[in-house]
Amino acid sequence: MSLATMRLFRPIALLAALAFAVPLSAAAADLPQPSGKVMLTISGKIEHTNVDGTAQFDLDMLKAMHPITVKTSTIWTDGTQTFTGVRLHDLMEAVGADADTLDATAINDYAVQIPSDDWGEDGAIVAYEQNGKPMSVRDKGPLWVIYPFDQDKKFQTEVTYSRSIWQLDRIIVGK
Questions:
Q1: Which CATH superfamily is domain 33-173 in?
Q2: What keywords tag this UniProt record (predicted)?
Q3: What is the pLDDT of residues 82-92, one digit of tens each?
Q4: 41-99 pLDDT per residue, tens
Q5: Of 149, 124, 154, which Cα lies nearest the Cα of 73?
Q6: What are the extents of the domains in the chain?
Q7: Residue 47, class by beta-carbon neighbours within 10 Å (0-12 exposed, 13-18 middle, 19+ buried)?
Q8: Cβ-proximal residues to 80 (8 Å cutoff; 6+ apart), any chain
């Protein structure tokens, strides 16, 4: 192939590469597949999925998402506890949540609505450890929505306590 012919095809090759790159970048935004037991399934108005239009997370996936530790007392425990988990804010960013509320549901079907104000950067976390240990179902686990109750009086209300759902296993973003 001559140099003139190669110069002619270069723009065509570039356009072809760009045409294929757009779908690939969109797919790259999807989440990895869970390899362990699924602990949390998020559905609804989300952009990033990994299993049949939902975002499913195993423990390793949650632990890989910028873990945060919150020390706080709760109305259900004695003394100050240390909770480790992922900010609800980071979780909603990871799935590309687009709504003003979350419907969070526990293993026993207890359900609460959590407004977007509660999943700001200083708000609730989805805890997977309490005092450095995984939480069993018997001990309000394996996932518990925890607020930094001691950090701000605005979290010390009956409404906020009711949103601190334990045994969390699914979230629907918007409706």
A1: Oxidoreductase, molybdopterin-binding domain (3.90.420.10)
A2: Signal
A3: 999 999 999 99
A4: 999 999 999 999 999 999 999 999 999 999 999 999 999 999 999 999 999 999 999 89
A5: 149
A6: 1-30, 33-173
A7: middle
A8: 71, 72, 73, 150
